[in-house]
Amino acid sequence: xxxxxxxxxxxxxxxLEGANEAVLGRAPESGADVLIQELxxxxxxxxxxxARTLAPDLYGAWRAAGQIAGVRVNPLDQDGMDDLAAxxxxxxxxxxLPKVAEPFHVTRLDEAVTRFERDYGIPEGSTALxxxxxxxxxxxxxxxxxxxxxxxxxxxxxxxxxxxxxxxxRGPDGVELAYCRQRFLVECVAADVVAVDCxxxxxxxxxxxxxxxxxxxxxxxxKSLVDPAHALVVNGVLSPGVDEVExxxxxxxxxxxxxxxxxxxxxxxxxxxxxxxxxxxxxxLARHEAMQAYERGSSS
Length: 300
Known about the structure:
Elements: E1 12-17, H1 21-26, E2 34-38, H2 48-64, E3 68-72, H3 76-87, E4 94-100, H4 103-120, E5 128-133, H5 136-139, H6 142-146, E6 154-157, H7 160-166, H8 178-191, E7 194-197, H9 205-218, E8 222-225, H10 231-237, H11 242-260, E9 266-268, E10 271-273, H12 275-299
């Protein structure tokens, strides 16, 4: 039986042109954890019928390569129902919905996906949902949106539409979306779902690395992307590194020894280590060990 990577271990969520067969075919080479056939903004209306026909074979190929196969359909009051009727034949692992601003948008999607699962003999409840938060109205309702369906284990925040809705000016430093990204993370943590950070939509590799490091510092463990070349950069930043793991082990060992000796803190590498730093190190080690265990299980 196929072992599906848990959402909390999915670091990179790559959105791809839905009708571009060459790009879709090469997508597994990117190394992204989640591949998403994008049928909305990246697929002009006249190309959507052709894109839909690719779904069954495409998702099968992505799954065979070890990645999670997803699709982003159009809003359901536009082309979304036609999208679902076609792509659900391929049993996608995840269905993403753009422009989610109200909880009922997710409820409608859940109902539609359930109906198609029954029609196509897909195990009911096996398809995850990924609400995309793209407007201020959706941002302030993220908790309610995330809780509207049991299928939702992650939510994604968009960048370009969010900036446009705010009337903000986009820039590589991302200052204009800083509050939104922080607010979105808080809402997702409160709802107990994975927060998928907005994509870095500029081309420089150092820029995406810096942007991802900033997101990780906030607490993000996942990021969406629109450039396949960014996947390995994102995966690297969002995975505990060898040096980080070793330092965390030393910190935990030193702090445990200090506490056993009746001390409340310990000095390590010239810095005083107190309980918050100890807890952060423990979380890093727990995530590293869980990811390693998953990878071992997947390869066995």
